[in-house]
Amino acid sequence: MDSAHVEHDLVNVLFTEAQIQARLKEMAAQIEQDYEGEELLIVGILRGAVMVMADLARSFTRHLEMDWMAVTSYGSGTKSSGVVRILKDLDTDISGRHVVIVDEIIDTGLTLSWLTSNLTSRNPASVEIATLLRKPEALQMPVDVKYVGWDIPNEFVVGYGLDYREKYRNLRDIGTLAPHVYS
Ligand code: 5GP
Ligand code: MG
Ligand code: MG
C-alpha cells in the first residue's frame, strides 16, 4: 500500500466524485432556468472554489462568463473573523451585470456576507450565491444563499478544492481526515 496516496488519509467519504458531479448538474440546470434570457457572470472564490467552478461551468449548456476573486479573512486558526482583504479583485466591471458568486463551502458565512455587500456596492443587476456545501452555523448569518449543494454537519472536510494546510485539494471525493493526519 502506498501511504503517499492522498485518498488513504480520508477516513470517511461524505460525497463521491459521481455524487458531486450529479449535484452540480442539478444546480447548473436550476441556475440556467433562473437566468433564462439574461447574461450571467459567475465569480469563483480562489482557491477553494476552483474545482466547483470548473465542473459547474461545464454543466451549463448556455453561454456564461467566468471571473475570479481571491480574498483572505483574518482569523484565529480555522475560524474566520469577518475582516476580509481582497488579494485579487475581479477583472470585470459588474455594474448592470447578473452575478453568481461560486464557493465550495460556507462555514460562518462571514466571508460571503462581506463579499456580497462588497459586490453589491458595485451596482450589479443582481448578486446571488452558489455553494457546494454549507455548515449549520452559516444559517445564523444574514447571508442569503440561493443555491446550496448540501448542508453538512459541523465537521472539517477536505477534498475537491477543500484543503487542510494546503493539501488534499486534489482529491476527487469529499471526506473527513483520519485522526493520524492531525497528530
Ligand atoms: P466562512 O464562511 O467561515 O467565512 O469561511 C469559509 C471558508 O473557511 C471556506 O472558504 C474554507 O476556506 C474554510 N472552511 C470552512 N469550513 C471548512 C472545512 O470543513 N474544511 C475546509 N477545508 N475548509 C473550511
Ligand atoms: Mg472558499
Ligand atoms: Mg483553507
Word description of this protein:
The chain is an alpha/beta fold. It has a single domain (6-182), classed as Rossmann fold. The protein has four helices and nine strands. It has helices at residues 17-34, 50-59, 110-120, 179-182; strands at residues 10-15, 40-46, 65-74, 83-88, 98-106, 126-134, 147-151, 157-158, 174-177. It has a six-stranded mixed sheet, with helices on both faces. It has a three-stranded antiparallel sheet with strand order 1-9-8. Strand 5, helix 3 and strand 6 (126-134) form a beta-alpha-beta unit. Helix 1 crosses helix 2 (50-59). One magnesium ion (MG) binds next to strand 5.
Q: Under the CATH scheme, which class? A: Alpha Beta
Main sheet summary:
6 strands, mixed
Q: Any idea what the CATH architecture is? A: 3-Layer(aba) Sandwich
In order across it, which strands form the biggest sheet?
Answer: 4-3-2-5-6-7
Compute the CA-based radius of gyration: 16 Å
> Number of helical segments?
4
Class by alpha and beta content: alpha/beta
Mean pLDDT: 91
Number of beta-strand segments: 9
Small ligands present: guanosine-5'-monophosphate, magnesium ion
Give the helix proportion (percent range): 10-25%
